Amino acid sequence: MLNNSCNEFLNQLASGAAVPGGGGASALCGALGAALGSMVCNLTLGKKKYADVQADIQRIIGRTEELRNQLQQLVQADADAFEPLSKAYGLPKDAPERDQVMAQCLKDAGAVPLRIMETCAQVIELLEELAEKGSRLALSDVGVAAVFCRAALEGASLNVYINTKLMKDRALAEEYEAQADGLSAEWASRADKTARAVQTAIRK
Amino acid sequence: MLNNSCNEFLNQLASGAAVPGGGGASALCGALGAALGSMVCNLTLGKKKYADVQADIQRIIGRTEELRNQLQQLVQADADAFEPLSKAYGLPKDAPERDQVMAQCLKDAGAVPLRIMETCAQVIELLEELAEKGSRLALSDVGVAAVFCRAALEGASLNVYINTKLMKDRALAEEYEAQADGLSAEWASRADKTARAVQTAIRK
After folding, report:
1. What contacts A42, CB < 8 A, 6 or more positions away?
2. pLDDT tens readout for residues B67-88
3. d(CA A5, CA A89)
4. Which of residues 103-162 of A touch B (CB under 8 A)?
5. Is the whole-model pTM more than 0.95?
6. C-beta atoms of A158 and B165 within 8 A
């Protein structure tokens, strides 16, 4: 899906087509945040002024690139999980297999935004470190990355809930919701804290 | 720039190349938000249940598509404004034209993120209306759009400040900063309010 041009991706998103939707867009938003983290690393590597932190920055960029790759794959995973679900909706209300098929589809479709959230949380943790160690010339980009990862986290959380809402297995629904709420509560505020710290430093 | 594949755009963003950076990424994030607004309109148009609001939705999608197009163009505009600035940095410190060239480049480079902010503000206003009138089946996407537009607004605001910080013309710097702060204060909180309303409705 990301092999399409950005213009084409945006056109598809804007259309009434089943995919991409808000879940895939959230994964892409997180990937933009991870990419900005990598950019800050690339602008810090090889600079004499930051000689002391080169090993840390090398470790961080290894992780931001890995997480960016995961988020890019989650754009497609979200589309792949949504398509069987939209077919399941189309089954006759009295089809004997309907409940079981729907249950499996909702389980799969809800798991993807949870993975998006977990992946964004890991990016946010690295951004906290980058805000301390990365090149001062790219500090604003750490802040932009943090607001994007927060948006991706919150967008994905909404996409967990649209699936759990329809689940008949309320134990699984509550488990997914508790995971989403836990990730939001911790990481949205940590992303916010990093973004605010960057904003304060830049306004000085 | 958006004619490149999404993967390629992300690779360029992650690299140490001068563009795209946090400003262009913010415009893209806003474009994703506007596209989600259009998607909600497309999922509402032609539906009997929403017969009463068809004219409103037609008006809204006309605007979200226009604003999306503007945000897509602002990705390129941000790159176009940054390149002369990065060349100006390279001028010898004692070059007689340096101050004047830098002043013009900073004025241009700071104006782009302000336009990104103004455009996102207009998308947010439309999302408020869509949260009321759009298809309930796509309500979560209105929320995702709102968190994206908020992130784009905040990311662009940081990019206003990195330019004003370097301006010798302090009157212009303060004018730009006042505009950015005014847009942030009003529209980040309105986007937040919309996102929270969606979240509350979806959790019911």
Report:
1. A61, B14, B15, B16
2. 999 999 999 999 999 989 989 9
3. 30
4. 140-141, 143-145, 147-148, 150-151, 154-155, 157-159, 161-162
5. yes
6. no
